[in-house]
Structure formats: C-alpha cells, structure tokens
Sequence to fold (220 residues):
Amino acid sequence: MTDSGDSYLTAAGRAEIETKVKGSRFVGRVFPVSSKDEAEAQVVELRKRDHDATHHCFAYSLRVGAGQSGATFRFSDDHEPSGSAGKPIYDRLTGLGVTNTLVVVTRYFGGTKLGVGGLVRAYGEAAGLALEKACLIEKFDYDEFALTIDFSAYQGLQGLISRVGGIVIDSQFSENVQVRVNVRRSLADEFSREFIELTHGKWPITRDTHRESDGNASES
Fold:
C-alpha cells in the first residue's frame, strides 16, 4: 500500500471463520463499515441473531473527519475478563493497518475456562484468521473535478489525466469538451495547477471533495 496520506486498507467484504479451543467455539467475522452507527448496529444484529452465544466481543476502527484525518475506535470484552478479548481483536486490526472495519468474535462456551492468557490467544487468533480470510482492499480519498476545455487542448488534458492516474467519470462533446474526473487527493493540487497552466487560466475548473474510491483489491 502507498503512503501518501490519502490511502488506507479496509475489508472489501465480509468474511467468517471458526476455531475451537478446549471445547469453546470461536466464530470470527469481519465486516466493512463506514460509521460508528453502522458498526454498532451490526453488533446488535449479531447479538439478536446468535442470542444463544456466550459472548460477542468486538473491535472496530474508523477514519473520521472531512479531510479523513484521525480515527475513532471501540473495543468490547462483552463480559469476558477485562482486556482478554476486545483489545486482542483490536490489536489484530491495528497490526495490519486495517480501518473502516469491524471484527466480531463470538464465543460459545465449551465448559472449560481458558484463563485470561488463553482468552487473549483465542480471541486474537480468531480475529487474525478472519482478517486473513477477508479480501483487503486499498482505498483512497479523491477530489472530483468538473472541467471545460476547447478541443485544441483536449489531447493535453488526456495526457495530464493519465499522468496523475485520474479516472474520467463523464465526457460531453459539443462546442467544447466538458469532463468530470476523479483525482487522488494527494495529487489534486498538482492536477489543478497543471490544468490552469495548460489552459492559461481561460477555462473553468471546479473541485469537490469526496469520500473514497476503490484501489486494487488483493487477497490478504
């Protein structure tokens, strides 16, 4: 993954695994989430659906703010001994640098107590295996530009878009060319500056901030 400040790693979809430790079943599940409300609602849904489980321990990490700086997180032991479940799950998330992701490890008690150390290992292992099974994808923040340009400069614009790895959303051809293009936020200032240079400031350019875009997915 690149380290430009506008990219991050998250789960592309859901994943589920199951492990057994001394008779107890641990079901690890991964969910992509984009807000605290979404993460909390998913935990509530699991508790209602799997109401016969002994514990639903979880952790999530989220990027926050219009500029995507900072993060918010929460983890819960769900009545397991303090520090034995939620924190080990959270440590697996942060250890991989994964965000906008919820991991829930559901335990069905098998009759044998594992002790705090055993629980730390069991919950951490279940979370790690679930994250290994999940497809992790790089996403990035981007800005959307709306551009107008004459035909004589259109080839130059295509070259500029290609240089910054921009993604054309829409193109309209009439008396001139109107283009909407997504550009990674880390390259947006450069793109804007070069467009103004290309057109000598004669053609309009507007810029809107957006949340995220998919990068290349890869199995983790």
Summary: The chain has two domains: 7-138, 141-219.
